[in-house]
């Protein structure tokens, strides 16, 4: 698998819930990354990313990713923090979605 660096454009990140509905998690733009959760934590992909505009991406394979991390403990710590933050945000969005289904107004 791989992670992707957004060189230009915008990627829309969505997640499908158990009931089949889709919710937007983020709009990622130039300078941001996606796909790192699956590489760093070895979790399966947690969301779907589609091009919101014309995009140029740089792909970093799992093997290249592992080589880069092995040579840079500081980068490994920073990536670990970023993955943790994204997983927390993902869990939060799941909790909000679960709660909102029971609210009537």
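Q: What amino acid sequence fits the structure above?
A:
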């Amino acid at each position: 698998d791989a992670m992707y660096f957004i060189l230009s454009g915008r990627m829309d990140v969505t997640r499908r819930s158990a009931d089949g509905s889709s919710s937007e998690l983020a709009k990622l733009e130039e300078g941001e990354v996606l796909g790192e959760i699956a590489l760093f934590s070895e979790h399966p992909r947690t969301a779907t990313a589609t091009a919101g505009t014309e995009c140029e991406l740089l792909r970093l394979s799992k093997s290249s990713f592992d080589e880069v991390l092995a040579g840079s403990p500081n980068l490994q710590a920073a990536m670990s923090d970023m993955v943790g933050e994204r997983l927390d945000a993902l869990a939060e969005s799941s909790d909000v979605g679960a709660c909102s289904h029971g609210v009537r107004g």
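Q: And what stands out in the fold?
A: Confidence is low (pLDDT under 50) at residues 96-105.
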